[in-house]
Specification:
With about 600 residues, the chain is of the alpha+beta class. The chain is about 30% helix and about 25% strand. The protein contains 18 helices and 23 strands. The N and C termini lie far apart (about 65 Å).
């Protein structure tokens, strides 16, 4: 018989009755019942009830065992009485009568109990993560993560992609976040950077002729934590394709994601193929976000022109439009039946959370067959304009409508947040309703105006191909701001339930177009050559048209696990301050190590 186990703690069934078995695991729960001691023994695979009677030679040893001790038990498998069967456990029809026991290790007082549903502060959970990971829900999430990654690999290789690894130590690159820098011992004063993404390398793989690449890639970004973004590091399904159009990328990615989510949906529904495509400008108008949650049926409407009409007397909105702003209408289906407190609560939310003046609103009710608008601003809007407003926002009797008025970007932000808030408050669901609702957001602007620095910036990925005729693009005057800000790029995001899973693009593989694109954003040619010379030189040796994307593994697992925080699907996460409380990182290093790296510390001044 094996020294530790003949079976796992999740394996025994009624067909094993009569066998003598050996199990090893942790004491999950111990119960004393009239002289009998019951031990629920737990390992990675499950839980088995074990029992010992007072006259057993092993009773004294078992009696000493406490929670989370690691023990090995040997004994016969017996059937449980009908009234004691535990239908909630796969092993619930049997138990092991302990004949022998070996204590493998003892546990002292535990800072975190594994058995039970006790909630613990995040600091406790992260500091004692090895205990936290023994708890069933978190343990299952990590197992789910492993299964999802295995499925992704199978699906990608089945689609003709091959997995290649890219460097971890590389050069700093402007990916939109701060780099983690690694000092070089052999090159004093110089630094490597940990890759924010394998962006340049995966493009070079295409230039090298490998055609279809993927990798479960670690990425490193020195940025603040959020519920859907881990500080420090994360993983993504990084992929790239040669001789590929945007449609080709979508055709390759959609079956992988759709099949993956169907495989692990556990009865939940997934929106059908092909995924909906929404232009960026439409997404910002209709949903107030470039990552719309399509489970919410509300669609925002632009009603700026209606409030510019001379018959409208509501000056607050008229002045916004006259000053170059916009007015957005956010429908609230069925909200006319809500009490006044519902509307006051939303106004208070807009002021407190969104720092907005409030949300004007109108409630539409039927009065003797006539639809009448009521509310604080209804009297300032004549009936013909109200009728156009109802048609524009697709409103019917019993509905209400809220308004966001400001500059276009601020109005979109407020309207988008209000859409989410109203949908949650009214418990609205789209029809048809999908538990996982995917969409592509396409046609992102190539550039945006940086109001603080009064300059044109890249709005998304600087390595994207502009949707512009080659000769016309090369002839652009960098000072022609109006024309430049109208240029879209072959850039796209894949979104599920309002969560951006990845950004992607058809890449700019032409050196002259790349240099021009950076010139428009204020980067001199010599700086571009210095920072991206490796990729430019590769392109000058013949580069295929190529494109790709990189859905986030952590976010996909988070969605499928039904949790709202990435720490629930990450084995050893950091806290909000990017600290590993368990291992004590970041940590001080010795003066000797600093000397070897030619580094002198300059602590920040206190106060």
């Amino acid at each position: 018989m094996h020294a530790y186990r003949t079976h796992t703690c999740g394996e025994l069934r009624r067909s094993d009755v009569g066998k003598t078995v050996r199990l090893s695991g942790w004491v999950h729960r111990r119960r004393d019942h009239g002289g009998l001691i019951f031990i629920d023994l737990r390992d990675h695979f499950g839980l088995t009830q074990c029992v010992i009677e007072p006259d057993s030679p092993a009773f004294a040893a078992v009696d000493t065992a406490r929670s989370e001790w690691v023990v090995t038990v040997t004994g016969p498998v017996v059937a449980r009485d009908a009234e004691t069967v535990n239908a909630a456990l796969p092993t619930g029809e049997v138990e092991v009568r302990i004949a022998e026991v070996a204590i493998q290790s003892r546990a002292g007082d535990l800072p975190l109990l594994v058995f039970g549903e006790t909630e613990y502060p995040e600091e406790t959970r992260l500091r004692y993560r090895f205990l936290d990971l023994r708890r069933e829900e978190l343990h299952n999430n990590i197992v789910l993560r492993s299964k999802i990654i295995s499925s992704v690999r199978r699906r990608m290789t089945g689609a003709g992609f091959m997995e290649y690894q890219t460097p971890i130590l590389t050069a700093s690159s402007p990916e939109g976040a701060r780099d983690f820098l690694v000092p070089s011992r052999l090159h004093p004063g110089k630094f490597y950077a940990l890759p924010q993404a394998p962006q340049q390398f995966k493009q070079l793989i295409m230039v090298a002729g490998f055609d279809r690449y993927f990798q479960i890639a670690p990425c490193f970004r020195d940025e603040d934590a959020r519920a859907d973004r881990s500080p420090g590091e994360f993983y993504q399904l990084d992929l790239e394709m040669s001789f590929a159009t945007q449609d080709d990328v979508f055709a390759a990615v959609e079956p992988v994601l759709h099949g993956l989510f169907e495989e692990f949906a556990n009865g939940r529904s997934v929106s059908p193929l092909p995924f909906v495509r929404i232009p960026y400008a439409e997404a910002m108008l209709k949903y107030g976000s470039d990552k719309p949650d399509l489970r919410n049926p509300i669609e925002i409407a632009d009603v700026s022109d209606l409030f510019a009409d001379e018959t409208v007397e509501f000056k607050a909105f008229k002045n916004v439009v006259a000053g170059g702003g916009v007015v957005r209408a956010i429908p609230a289906p069925g909200a006319a039946a809500q009490p006044r407190s519902f509307f006051d609560k939303l106004n208070d939310w807009a002021r407190a959370e969104m720092k907005a003046p409030g949300l004007g609103y109108i409630v539409f009710e039927s009065d003797d067959g006539e639809i009448v608008g009521k509310g604080p601003i209804a009297k300032f809007i004549p009936a013909p304009i109200q009728e156009q407003l109802r048609a524009r926002a697709k409103l019917k009797p019993g509905d209400a409508v809220f308004f966001a008025a400001d500059k276009a970007d601020k109005a979109a932000k407020l309207a988008g947040a209000a859409r989410t808030k109203i949908g949650e408050e009214l418990h609205l669901k789209a029809s048809p309703a999908y538990d996982f609702h995917f969409c592509w957001v396409v046609d992102f602007p190539m550039y945006e105006w940086n109001e603080d620095e009064k300059k044109i910036d890249f709005s998304h990925n600087p390595f994207s191909m502009p949707q512009f005729d080659h000769d016309a693009f090369m002839g652009l005057d960098p000072a022609d701001r109006e024309r430049i800000l109208k240029i879209n790029a072959y850039q796209y995001d894949i979104v599920c339930n309002g969560i951006e899973l990845s950004s992607g693009a058809i890449r700019n593989h032409l050196p002259d177009v790349m240099l021009k694109a950076f010139e428009i954003a204020g980067y001199p040619g010599d700086e571009v050559e210095r920072r991206f010379g490796g990729m430019l030189n590769a392109f000058r040796c013949g580069a295929p048209p190529h494109g790709g994307t990189a859905p986030g593994i952590d976010r996909m697992v988070m969605l499928l696990a039904g949790v709202e925080n990435l720490r629930e699907v990450t084995m050893f996460p950091m806290n909000q301050r990017a600290e590993d409380l368990m291992m004590g990182a970041p940590s001080d290093v010795s003066p000797k190590q600093l000397r070897e790296l030619h580094i002198r510390l300059v602590p920040p001044e206190k106060g």
